[in-house]
Amino acid sequence: MQRNFDIVGDIHGHADALERLLGRLGYADSGDGYAHPSRQMIFVGDFIDRGPDQSRVLAIARDMCTKGSALAVLGNHEFNAIGWATGDGNGGHLRPHTLKNHTQHRAFLDQLKEGSAAYLSAIDWFRTLPVYLDLDGLRVVHACWHQPSLDLLRPYLDSQNRFTRDGFLLANRKGSDVATATDIVLKGPEIALPPPNSFFDKDGHERKEARIRWWDRKATTFRLAAIGADPDNLPDTPIGSDYFYSASKPVLFGHYWLRGTPELTSPGAACLDFSVARAGYLTAYRWSGEMQLSATNLVSVPATPD
Length: 306
Ligand SMILES: [Mn+2]
What we know:
alpha/beta, Purple Acid Phosphatase, chain A, domain 2, 2 domains, six-stranded mixed sheet, four-stranded mixed sheet, 9 helices, 17 strands, 28% helix, 18% strand, globular
């Protein structure tokens, strides 16, 4: 039987927006968690960090996953949360407790109360999330579907595409093939700009690598493909990368903090992160078996109701 899915972008602790979106999509909570009579939800990850109601977001999503009303994949923020909570065997942690890492994770640590039963339970749940879903007619991943990276990760994932214990350790070992592939899949590919080109990101840091619009097959030059850089500062030279998605099965993903009114990024690859955590939109795609995605199937709610 054809399964119908509503795929939802990054939530980052915005439980009110999630509940409004669930309502818009016809999911109701009759006392036993949110469910839809004929559809399932899929979360693209990044439930946590930044937003005000992270515990409530986790309660809603986890309950839906437990009861079969939803599926979910691992986001880079959950990956980082597991690393923050996991010892490295030398008195430190897989994700170092630096000021920068703490700042990024602080709202979660404060709201869940680091070390509490609720906190440990959330980390345990994150460990059960698959890196990707390859379903009948549909693919879901947090940041980028890149088959060579997914193939490389294969030995480090279990039969349900979750990191094995050793796989997770290697994925945190900077510079390893496994860590590089994990970064591409959970954070998206970056390509070195031809020297001497560089640009300054939103935090004022000079960057010599650019994230690219891997979902847009027409974005063939640095100027067209780079994200977060002023196009005038980028060369008009071809990228020449294997990151562009060309499979016939559509892929849905989040992660990219896109701005403005939600729109379809591509008929074969749709980003669903329209920055609910920056006063944007929480966005879903209502998928009912189509091979070519359509903008008419996007459903959004604003971060705060009008
Ligand atoms: Mn992300």
